[in-house]
Amino acid sequence: MARTSAVHARRDWSRWPRARWALLTTGAHRDRGMSTAEYAVGTIAACAFAALLFKVVTSSDVQQMITALINRALTVAG
Fold first, then answer.
1. Structure confidence by residue, pLDDT tens digits, 29-49
2. Is residue 66 within 8 Å of residue 58, measured between CB atoms?
3. What is the pTM of this model?
């Protein structure tokens, strides 16, 4: 009796990858990507971050720091 259940368990285990693949490729698991609404929200968030970054980089304080850094890097110590 124990031998029969071990063989049966082995048989179920050997079919497991095929059964799992069938579950993943059918039904609710098939739609794993982002929906159009999620793309829209992601795009808006990326644009808002880009606008904020642009505002920070183009501020006068940051431009002065970048200019000073470049000047210091290009200045040859003599």
1. 555 666 888 889 999 999 999
2. no
3. 0.46
